[in-house]
Amino acid sequence: MPKHPAPFDRSKRPLGAAKLDELALAYVARFATSRAKLLRYLARKVRESEWMDESDAMAACEAVADRMERLHYLDDRQYAVMRAGAMTRRGLGVRRVRAQLYVDGIAEADSGEAIEAAESAAVAAAIGFARRRRLGPFAARGLDDPKLRERQVAAFVRAGHSPALARHILGVAPGDADALAALDAGAALD
Questions:
Q1: Helices 76-89 and 108-120, axial angle in degrees (round to 10)
Q2: pLDDT at residue 80 tops 60
């Protein structure tokens, strides 16, 4: 008995392999992305649409992602370096960088260089975080309340920094540029 296609759902737009390729090209042109993020986007578009091709929709998504990689529109290693650099410049620590690269679907082999760069910039990122949040040496006045100090340490930890580094930075007196410069020039704390 021949299979009859399901009736067309007018609430969903038709989608085929050619349109899927156009969507992927527009996505990589607009956003810096990883292979996994592109595949999630394409899978969502397939779910939201009525698939019209005879080929499997998920296989078509993989084929489109493969094509984007061959054309060098996707490069997970470069994406990881770019993403990690942007995060450390915003003051986020290594733990947050690792977590974000994992969420973005970057394999460990592709994220190694980015993680190393984030580790080497850990102290500078933590100092940048303190500057943006006006904590420690950037505060208007010294901090005497231990509960408030622990809340500030928790903010550093949520940003991906180690508690030891956070306590060290918070221990620098407001306006003590020499101690801050020595900390930045010294080795990173775990």
A1: 30
A2: yes
